[in-house]
Design brief:
With 362 residues, the chain is α+β, with helices and mostly antiparallel strands. The chain has 8 helices and 20 strands. An 8-stranded mixed β-sheet has the order 6-7-5-15-16-17-14-18, sandwiched between helices. A 6-stranded mixed β-sheet has the order 9-2-1-13-20-19, covered by helices on one side. A 3-stranded antiparallel β-sheet has the order 3-8-4. Helix 1 crosses helix 8 and helix 3 packs across helix 8. The two termini are 27 Å apart.
């Protein structure tokens, strides 16, 4: 049986890799694998976020993926480095409201069995000397980050090393159990996985209304560089009711993000977006202005109608969906990949993925 995965972001590549590991013949179709939302993503892997406090199903899904991440990476690194760091995530409070929110977060994480360490202002300063004065912090020592660019490259390497195929063409249409490419060639499939994010609806030939609408949500992100690295661990800077994520890489890169903009398919990098991120970064890291400006980019996150993932079979026979992960695609890649591979092999998918069937919206 030939499985075709349309979409070469982290979700599509992870699903294809797990399907190939399960013994299926796999073909990935994407004109430039790893070049869209996954390429722009910062790759922070926090234990929890505020969206999970009142969405238990999403919480369970994230916890299931968090549990899978170490073994997922260990298997992948048989083929190539995956860019995974599990050296902590620091939530740093820069005002009283943020400091109060850490109490709730600590109680919530500890109720889930997630280790935390409450840090004083002095301890935060010792861990991250580049920070402006803080009121306190919460360290989650068992969490961390992954570099999505390294991760997607490793997934491509692993897929091809296992005999899978990556076709660098665009899918234009689905017809008669085949995907039609932009050069007119066709790729036959027994089962099809749609993992093209917000680009899924550019593919013709699928029945009207059979696939839930996936909208683009723009995010701009800034990459700076210093030698040595400015920050020691991945951090969320909390102030004025919002958070700024700061993801350091071992090579000195610092990822600062991100904006959230409902602007359709606009991928333009703007002065407002870039300037806003740099201003917020300068407020919490006074020396950030001296860092080398490396890159600014914009990507389109895939948002479902209810902003929750879409994982599993659709109303179209032999067609599966792996999309709608919004801002958590990198975080949810392991559990999504396990679920899709299970569906494709008629096995039992992880229980945590059951609430996220695309059938709930069709």
């Amino acid at each position: 049986m030939n499985t075709v995965v349309v979409g070469g972001g982290v979700i599509g590549l992870a699903a294809a890799w797990r399907a190939r590991r399960a013994g299926l013949a796999v073909t990935v179709i994407d004109p430039a694998p790893g070049s869209k939302a996954s390429h722009v993503s910062g790759g922070m892997l926090p234990a929890v976020n505020d969206q999970m406090y009142d969405q238990e199903s999403l919480l369970r899904l994230c916890l299931a993926s968090r549990e899978l991440y170490p073994s997922f990476v260990a298997e992948l690194e048989e083929f190539a480095p995956a860019g995974f760091r599990r050296d902590g995530v620091l939530d740093a409070a820069f005002d009283e409201d943020a400091l109060g929110s850490l109490d709730r977060q600590q109680s919530f994480q500890e109720s889930l069995g997630i280790r935390t360490e409450r840090l004083t202002a002095a301890e935060v300063g010792a861990l991250q000397p580049a920070f402006a004065p803080v009121l306190g912090g919460l360290l989650s020592p068992d969490d961390g980050a992954v570099d999505p660019r390294v991760l997607t490259a490793a997934l491509i390497t692993a897929i091809e090393a296992l005999g899978g195929t990556v076709i660098r063409r665009a899918a234009t249409r689905v017809a008669d159990h085949a995907v039609v490419l932009d050069n007119g060639e066709t790729v036959a499939f027994d089962r099809l996985v749609l993992a093209a994010g917000c680009w899924t609806h550019r593919i013709e030939g699928l029945p009207q209304g059979a696939i839930p609408e996936i909208r683009p949500v723009k995010g701009q992100i800034v990459r700076l560089h210093s030698d040595p690295p400015l920050l020691a661990v991945t951090a969320r800077a909390l102030s004025k009711g919002s958070s700024l994520y700061l993801v350091p890489r071992l090579d000195g890169e610092l990822v600062v993000g991100a904006t959230y903009e409902e602007r359709g398919y606009d991928e333009t990098v703007t002065a407002d977006g870039t300037g806003g991120l740099l201003a917020r970064a300068a407020a919490v890291i006074p020396g950030v202005g001296a860092l080398r400006f490396a890159e600014v980019s914009a990507g389109l996150r895939p948002g479902s109608p209810d902003d929750l993932p879409l994982i599993g079979p659709t109303t179209v026979p032999d067609v599966y969906l792996a999309s709608g992960h919004f801002r958590m695609g990198v975080q949810l890649a392991p559990v999504t990949a396990e679920a899709i591979a299970a569906h494709l092999t008629d096995a039992t998918p992880p229980a945590a993925t059951a609430p996220f069937t695309p059938l709930r919206l069709t």
